[in-house]
């Protein structure tokens, strides 16, 4: 367990480019503590074998950065910093080869014994992808699974929001510091996740996301999870990077199949051809991750339609997306009355909008 006095130096080193797990442990071996390494003369750091690029980066940063101020900033924003020597550091993450020396956490991480699953996919999902992500995540949450994703647009956002809507918890892994929400439009979602899960990052405050940060972020998503579920991914989707990292970490890879005519499903269909578990329903995930003994599906109650208008609308809803214009034509209801009724049916859990004014049957409400 790292004490507070030493913690500030772990936090400070996390912002030095080129100094990761291997070099942190090498500095600990050479100097006995990171506080001594932080204040060591340049010649001693050279003698310890620190390469010139990392050395110059360390010298430049420690000339302007105050370790005490860094810790104060974290505390002001209610962010915890856990080192890989702390008991609160996720045990599953420490199983991977290149785990981060420091993990910044805002909120509450799932307990070690609680199963986590990373859910990733395209930033431009189809209505099918949104529906698949929403329903699978809701069922997984009701089975006691915690959802991990990257707060990106598309499937990531659907996964986080669906977990919250189902009354579960979710973890968002940042490629930036926790004070910089990316994309910006997900600021409200990030705040909700803080209340019902956690935001985590290996990057210190003030770090902006860079293209190379996202693949590194992805290894944390798969590292803290039992497996990775991919829902819609093109041939070059970043979600495929997460899947390949999961394989390298000895994690399970699962994928939802899609249409052979949809470019958004080319990546997921290829993963299945290469051996990923084909997922049609929540039970496929539970079986593949061997969670049958530790999960318990909560029953659903489906409210009945409360009037003739809702009954008429239900006759035109199914598990396949139906556009509101088609429902309007089929039901003969005025658009204003139809829109109002659909909004009420969404609140009841009878209907669900997938985006683009496409509707499907709802999954009902979680039983009290």
Structural overview:
The chain has helices at residues 4-13, 21-31, 34-39, 42-47, 52-62, 67-76, 127-142, 155-165, 187-195, 213-223, 238-248, 266-273, 282-288, 308-314, 324-331, 335-348; strands at 80-83, 102-107, 116-121, 146-149, 170-173, 197-201, 227-231, 252-256, 277-278, 300-301, 322-323, 351-355, 358-361, 365-366. It is an alpha/beta fold. The chain has 3 domains: 1-65; 116-288, Rossmann fold; 300-366, Winged helix-like DNA-binding domain superfamily/Winged helix DNA-binding domain (Arc Repressor Mutant, subunit A, Orthogonal Bundle), CATH 1.10.10. The chain has a 9-stranded mixed beta sheet with strand order 1-2-6-5-4-3-7-8-9, sandwiched between helices. The protein has a 3-stranded antiparallel beta sheet with strand order 11-13-12. It has a two-stranded antiparallel ribbon with strand order 10-14. α1 packs across α6 (67-76) and α10 crosses α11. 45% of the residues are buried. The mean pLDDT is 91.
* N to C succession of SSEs: HHHHHHEEEHEHEHEHEHEHEHEHEHHEEE
The helix/strand class is alpha/beta
Please state the average pLDDT score: 91
- How big is the Rg? 23 Å
Strand order of the largest sheet: 1-2-6-5-4-3-7-8-9
Strand content: 15-25%
- Overall tally of structural domains: 3
Cα-to-Cα separation, first versus last residue: 41 Å
Mind telling me the CATH class of the largest domain? Answer: Alpha Beta
Largest sheet: 9 strands, mixed
CATH T-level fold name of the largest domain: Rossmann fold
**Number of discrete helical segments:** 16
Range of helix content? 40-55%
Which regions contain 5 or more consecutive residues with pLDDT less than 50?
Answer: none
**Shape assignment:** elongated
Strands, total number:
14
Return the CATH architecture of the largest domain. 3-Layer(aba) Sandwich
């Amino acid at each position: 367990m790292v004490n507070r006095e030493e913690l500030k130096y772990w936090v400070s080193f996390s912002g030095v480019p080129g100094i990761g797990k291997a070099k942190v442990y090498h500095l600990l071996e050479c100097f006995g503590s990171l506080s001594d390494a932080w204040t060591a003369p340049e010649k001693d750091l050279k003698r310890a074998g620190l390469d010139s690029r990392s050395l110059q980066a360390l010298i430049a940063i420690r000339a302007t950065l105050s370790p005490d101020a860094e810790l104060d900033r974290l505390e002001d924003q209610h962010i915890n910093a856990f080192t890989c020597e702390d008991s609160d550091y996720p045990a599953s993450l420490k199983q991977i080869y290149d785990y981060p020396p420091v993990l910044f956490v805002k909120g509450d991480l799932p307990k070690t014994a609680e199963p986590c699953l990373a859910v990733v996919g395209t930033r431009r999902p189809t209505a099918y992808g949104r529906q698949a992500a929403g329903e699978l995540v809701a069922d997984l949450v009701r089975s006691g699974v915690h959802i991990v994703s990257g707060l990106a647009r598309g499937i990531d956002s659907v996964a986080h929001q669906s977990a919250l809507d189902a009354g579960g918890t979710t973890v968002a892994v940042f490629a930036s510091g926790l004070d910089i929400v990316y994309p910006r439009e997900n600021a409200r979602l990030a705040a909700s996740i803080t209340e019902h899960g956690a935001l985590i990052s290996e990057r210190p405050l003030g770090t902006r996301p860079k293209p190379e940060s996202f693949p590194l972020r992805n290894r944390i998503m798969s590292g803290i999870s039992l497996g990775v579920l991919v829902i819609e991914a093109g041939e070059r989707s970043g979600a495929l990077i997460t899947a390949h990292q999961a394989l390298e970490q000895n994690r399970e890879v699962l994928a939802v199949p899609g249409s052979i005519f949809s470019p958004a499903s080319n990546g997921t269909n290829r993963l299945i051809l290469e051996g990923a578990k084909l997922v049609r329903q929540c039970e496929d995930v539970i079986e593949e991750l061997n969670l049958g003994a530790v999960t318990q599906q909560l029953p659903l109650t489906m409210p009945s339609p409360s009037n003739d208008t809702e009954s008429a609308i239900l006759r035109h809803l199914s598990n396949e997306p139906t556009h509101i214009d088609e429902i309007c034509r089929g039901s003969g209801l005025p658009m204003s009355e139809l829109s109002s009724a659909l909004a009420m049916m969404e609140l009841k859990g009878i209907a669900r909008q997938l985006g683009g004014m496409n509707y499907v049957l709802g999954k009902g409400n979680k039983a009290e």
